[in-house]
Amino acid sequence: MVHWKSQRTFCSHAHYVTDVEGKLDVSVAEAVGGSYNGVFPAGLLTTLSPAPHELPTLRLYRRNTELPWKVCRAERCAINECVAHGSSSGSWMATSLEGRNMRLLSELELERQLVGPGVRRVQVREGKIRGALYLPPGPGPFPGIVDMFGTVGGVMEFRSAMLASRGFASLALAIFNYDDLPKTTSRIDLDYFEEAVEYLLSRPEVIPDRCGAVAISKSGDIVFSMGTAFPAVKAVVGISSCTMVFHSKFFYKGKFYGKGVEVPLSFMKRDEAGAVSADMTYLFDPDNPLMIPVERADDETHFLVAVGDDDPWGFRASIPAFRERMLRNNRRNFETILYPGTGHIIEPPYGPLIHSSFQRHIPSKERHEEFDKGAAMKWGGKPKPTCDAQVDLWRRMRAFLMQHVRDESHWYQAYLQERRG
User: Fold this and answer.
1) DSSP labels for 232-260?
2) What is the rounded distance in angstroms from the CA atom of residue 77 to the CA atom of residue 17?
3) 148 phi and psi, to 5 degrees?
């Protein structure tokens, strides 16, 4: 179990058969039932989902990064069959396996920290900028990152906290529905994001001549536009991202910059659990005039595009369209990766697979009473492939950002040379 705000409960469980000595090593043992099957050491974490008495569309994440996850782990046994439970609160978990009473063998509470020792959090309310800056221990200079999420709204800080714990100065930037920012994404002013870049690069702890930008889903259209329009943004990571302006109207320096595509609400399909999705495959076309002109970015700007092939929104089609558009213009400053069995949401390592979650803001101009107060969105994905994708992308993304923001910085190389000399 994992303790969440308001004592919400998320849980998972697995059935194992111990060896003749009653021992169990989940790194090699196969789960024979429960929330997952097979050898899956991180299975109890990846398959955490809302408990039966909770809303099925609750999303497990930390708004307050200073609070650790409380992971309660219990082992119960029936003869030589061991059931390992992972959960988030209380002890409501079943105490029988196939109708048999089970004896509690052990119980343990673990803490998972999101912030490493010495990481500093700075609340940001500078000019129009709203968010939180996470700084690694020490004076720096550190590579700077602007970090954004999609249509969830508010400010999501956990990825920035984890990036700062690994040497990046990361600005968790709010886009909408936070403080005095707009309530929706119907209008996006790129000047706001340019101001965020300028603020980040003005910090004495940050390498001042370039930065990176990371986004998922809807905010991908923002970071691709930043990489195209802002000379200081040299590394762009788009996770399941829109490669065209989606829903919003973009403005830059007071002028119209791009019109967003609209997905008709009639395209929204519900699954058996009531979560909605819409296949946007038809929009990902290299000749679509609404596609962000990423080929215009300068030679020092690099793109990393990561997508899951089990994304019910069809974002897997964004990769061939992106590649063709770049190669057609003789541009090779990009990397793409398609993760098998992975859905729309790819979190940092060992986060739970998010099958669906409730979104209050549906990015559509159309109005319908069925969606006016939000909807449960379907994200797709399978547990083990999603966990593998999380681990790989986290490593790949950090290496990509470190190379193109720190190692290729002319300022940083001169700084090192001066220190050596």
Assistant:
1) TEEEEEEES--SB-BSSEEEETTEEEEEP
2) 10
3) -140, 155
Catalytic residue of the set 12, 217, 219, 357: 217
Looking at domain 2-112, its CATH class is mainly beta
3-state secondary structure labels for all residues of 265-320: HHHCEECCCCCEECCCHHHCCCCCCCECCHHHCCCCCEEEEEEECCCCCCHHHHHH
The CA-based dihedral angle spanning residues 110, 114, 115, 120, taken in that order and rounded to the nearest 10 degrees? -140
Does the annotation count 299 as an active-site position? no
Tell me the CATH number for domain 120-407: 3.40.50.1820
Q: Is the pTM of this model over 0.70?
A: yes
CA distance 283 to 260: 11
State how far the Cα of 225 lies from the Cα of 291, in Å rounded to an integer: 10
CA 167 to each of CA 212, 315, 391: distance values in angstroms, whole numbers, following the listed order: 13, 30, 18
Known active-site residue 209: no
**Full DSSP string of 86-154:** EESSSS-S--EETTEE-EEEEEEEEEE-SS-TT-EEEEEEETTEEEEEEE-SSS--EEEEEE---TT-S
State whether residue 342 is helix, strand or coil: coil
Residue 6 per-residue DSSP state: G
Is 344 a residue of the active site? yes
Tens digit of each residue's pLDDT (9 = 90 or more) over 117-146: 999 999 999 999 999 999 999 999 999 999
In angstroms, the CA 304 to CA 239 distance is 8
Annotated active-site residue in 3, 15, 247, 344: 344
Beta-bridge partners for 10? 2, 50
Domain chopping of the chain, boundaries: 2-112, 120-407
Helix (H, G, I), strand (E, B) or coil at 160: helix
Helices (H) and strands (E) in the chain, counts: 7, 24
Residue 239 CB contacts under 8 Å (≥ 6 apart), including other chains: 214, 215, 216, 217, 220, 306, 307, 346, 393
Express each pLDDT in 214-262 by its tens digit.
999 989 999 999 999 999 999 999 999 989 888 889 999 999 998 888 8
From the candidates 147, 189, 221, 311, give the one annotated as an active-site residue.
Answer: 311
Q: Report the alpha-carbon distance of residue 130 to residue 93 in Å, rounded.
A: 41
Q: What are phi and psi of 410, to 5 degrees?
A: -65, -40
**Which positions ≥6 away from 75 have C-beta within 8 Å?**
82, 83, 84, 85, 104, 105, 106, 107
